[in-house]
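Hi Y.,

Following your request, here is the sequence exactly as I used it, all 644 residues.
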Amino acid sequence: MTLLNALSVRWLVPAVLPFLRLLLTVFPEGPHPDHYPSPSTPRPDYDFVIVGGGTAGSALAGRLSEVPEWRVLLLEAGAAPPVESIVPGFSRVFYFPSDNNWAFNLHPQRHGLLSYSNRSSPVPQGRVLGGSSAINGMLYVRGNRRDFDNWASLGNPGWDYESVLPYFKKSEGYRGPPLQDTEAYHGREGPLTVVPKKGEHLQYTEAFLNAGLQLGFKTVDPTGPAQIGFAPTDYTIRGGERWHTARAYLKPAARRPNLHILKRATVLRVIFNEHKRAVGVEYKHKGKVWRVSAAREVVLSAGALLSPKLLMLSGLGHPSALGLHGIPVVADVPGVGQNLQDHMCLYGLTWTVGPHLPNTAKDIFSPKQISDYVHYRKGAFTSPIGQFGHAWAKVSEESGDPNWPDIQLYMASSGLAQEGVLASVALGLDKQKYLDQYAPLFGTTGMTIMPYLMRPKSRGSVVLRSRDPLDPPVVDPNYLSHPDDVHTLVNGIKLALKVGKTPAFAKGLGAQLYKKPLWGCAGHAFGSDDYWACFVRNMATTFYHFAGTCKMGPATDSFSVVDHNLRVRGVAGLRVVDASVMPVVVSGNPMAAIIMIAEKAADLIKEEWLAGAAEPQYSPSGHPHQHHSATPSPPSSGYHSIIS
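Below is the corresponding structure, written out as C-alpha cells. Let me know if you'd prefer a different format.
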C-alpha cells in the first residue's frame, strides 16, 4: 500500500503544508495574505469596542465604521488569516490544531461518542480575523424560514423571516447564473460573494440530485422559500479564493481612520461602573494587560463558546456558578452558557463506487493542478476538494410542519474510509477502532452521505473551567441526552441508505454500501434499528455549529440573556452579536445566519444611537490604556456543571 493510498489527499495537506505555502507565495501570481494594519498606538477610548473579529465581529465592525464620527475598536485574539486559508481546497488543514483556531475539546460525553478517544472530539473554532468563516467549509446556507418565524414566536419581534430576509440579501453578492423562481430571494450586490460549485463531469453531484428525484424530492435552491429537497452547493468564494467576512467587510473598512483593528489582543473581561454599565474592557496584548474605554457600547462577538465565557468572567451568570470560582456577581443572568446546541454529524456511512469514477487522491497533487491554481486560479483547489450535494428532509414520524426539516444529508465524493489514518486524528476517533473498521478500504474510490441533526432536542452548556481568563471553557453539548435525537438520526441513516439504493447511485455510480459491522455493535443485527442506534452513539459527533448560549428572548424567559435588540439583561451598554444569541439553531450551516445577525445588529445600533437616545459618556473609572502586570488567578480544580 502506497503512502498516497494510506493517507488520502485531504489529510496529506498538513504534512506538506510548508512546501505548498512556499509554492503559493513564490510566484507573483500566487495568492498572498491580506494585511489588516493595527494602530501604532491605540486610543484610550472609543465609542464602540467590539470583542472578536470573527464571522460576526468583522461584519459588525465594517458596518459600524460606516458612521464617520464613531470611533470603533475591533479586538481579535488571533492574527490575520494565513495564505493557506485563501485556497478553498485547503479547508481541511484547519481541522488540525494551529495558531488559527482555538483547538478546544469537548467535555467527555455521557450518552455518545463511544468510538472517540476519551469520548471527546476536537473543536476547531476560528481564532483569526474572519473567525470560523476563514477556516470552515465555505458552505452558504441560510436555514429555513420557519427557524426565524419560530424565533419571533418565542418573544423576539423583528426576527421573523420577512424581517430578516432583507439582511440576508443585503449581505449576499450572488454570482451564479440568472435564476428564475428564486431570484427575488438572492442579493446580487452584497459584500459576501457566493458562487455555485463549478466544473464539468460532476458525476457524484448529478447522481445525488437524480437520486432525490427518484425518491420523489424536488431539486431546490435552499436560499429560496422551499428548503425540503436536494440541492447542489453554493460557496463563499470569489475568483477561486475563499471570501470570508474579514475580506468582505473588514478589508474595505480598514482604510477608514475611525476603525482600529488590534490583532493578537485577548480580552479578559468587561469592565462595569457602579451603575452596572459596561464602560470598557481589559485585554492582554504583547504580554501586558491594558484597559480601553467604550463611550457608547461594548459588543461581544466572540462566538457561542467564548461570549458566554467572557460574560461569566465579567460577573454575569448564575450566582452559584460564579461563586464556584470566586467571581463577584454583577448581574444574576442564569441563562449565560446554557442552551448550547449543535448539529451532530454522523460519520462513517461509506459506499464503494465503480472504477470509472475519479479518485481525487491520485491526481489532486499533480504539478498541473498546483500550477493551474497558482497561475490561473483554476482547477480542483478553487473549491473544497471533491464533489458534494446536500438535502433537507423531515424524517421523524411525529406530527409537525412537514416543510421544517429535521435532517440534512451531506454527500461527499470520498468517505471516512478513504480519508486515511489522519482522519482519526482530525476527528478524534480512537485510532485502533478506526483502523480495524476502515483500513480495508484505504486507497479505494468511494463516497459518503452524512446525516446532520438539524433540530436537536438535547441541550448542553458552556461553563468556566476556572477564573483564569486564559483557560479554555468546558464545552459540554450533552449530545444524545434526549432519546428523540437518536431516533431522528436513525431515520436520517435510513434516508441515506435509500439514496444509496436508487438507480442513480446503485447503477450509475456502482455504489455498494460497506457492510462490515461496526465495533461494539456486532451484537445487533446489521441494518436493524438497534444496530443503527448503536452506530449513532458510536460515530455521531460535533459539526462545529454551536449556538444558543446567550439566548435571545423576552424578560419572561428567565433563561434569556439578551433581549430582541441583543442587549444583555441586568446591565447597560453591552450587547452580544454572534451565534450565541440564536434561541434555536437554524436548520442549516449557520455562517449565513450569523452574518445576517451582524447586519441587523448594525442597523439596530445605528437606529438607537443616531436617533439621539443618549450622548456618549466616557468612563472616568480606571485609567484607559494603562498597563498592569499580567498575573491571572490560579485555576480551580474539578469540573462543575450547572446542567439540571
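The mean pLDDT is 90.

Thanks again,
Q.
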